[in-house]
Design goal:
This protein is α/β, with parallel strands linked by helices and 164 residues long. The protein has eight helices and seven strands. The protein has a seven-stranded mixed beta sheet with strand order 4-3-2-1-5-6-7, with helices on one face. Helix 4 crosses helix 5 and helix 7 packs across helix 8.
Amino acid sequence: MEQITGRVWKLGDNIDTDVIYPGKYLPIIDAPEMALHVLEGLDPEFPKKIEKGDVIVAGFNFGCGSSREQAATSLKHAGIACIVAKSFSRIFFRNAINQGLALVQSKDAPDKIQPGETITINFASGEIITSQNQRFSFPPLPEFLMGILEDGGLIPHVKKSLKS
């Protein structure tokens, strides 16, 4: 995965796991069905608006709250390609990587990226480029995390490494 290009959904600070994947849906274990409820806590129509390859741009502390991995799973299966945020909850960060959901931490980009615009995230160069040709750098993910993302998540990554 060298780069992702997608339409932006702009969210704020402290988007917690209850907003991302409401607790009343925790009994659902089918990932595609889980995706039908993603961010319903923020906007009941949100799941119908998402298109495959979209990008969420948010503020501080994205994914705070409980440790439920359903938050990351539902985002990935809804078609979200990447989340760009000022910061992430530690547990959400790891759950997202384990699910194969790309994350980018940037202190500056979230304030300047506009909702609905298209951005390109280049993981190799550590750069976000907006449709307005604004450029923001971000610290690249370590190689071992990029390997997990490129393999589609932790389980496919482990299976691949066991075959080699």
